[in-house]
Specification:
Length: 105
């Protein structure tokens, strides 16, 4: 009786292994999937590099615009101070006083 049970158990294990082998993808299919994943990763890498370049160019453009605006503002302030120095001095004094009060609080 013990032999029959062992034989049945062996057959059951063999059947389980056979069904597992049938469910497992073939080596070739797995290799193909890995190749496809590698292609997708390469595409993603190129896309990210492209986006990084675009962001860099956009950032550089924004910096240039900010520098231009700051330069224009400095020029406008210099012109206003040369045109009316007493008013400019009064404004600077008032702003300094307000800033000092705000900092103390």
């Amino acid at each position: 009786m013990s032999r029959r049970r062992n034989t049945r158990q062996k057959r059951g294990k063999e059947e389980d292994m056979a069904s597992n082998d049938a469910e497992m993808p073939s080596h070739q299919a797995l290799s193909e999937e890995i190749r496809e994943i590698a292609k997708h990763l390469a595409t993603l890498r190129r896309d990210v590099e492209g986006l990084t370049g675009q962001l860099k160019r956009s950032g550089e453009h924004q910096i240039e615009r900010a520098q231009d605006k700051a330069s224009e503002a400095v020029t406008a302030v210099e012109t206003a101070v040369r045109r009316d120095p007493v008013t400019a001095l009064g404004i600077a004094l008032g702003l300094g006083l307000l800033l000092g009060i705000a900092i103390r609080r």
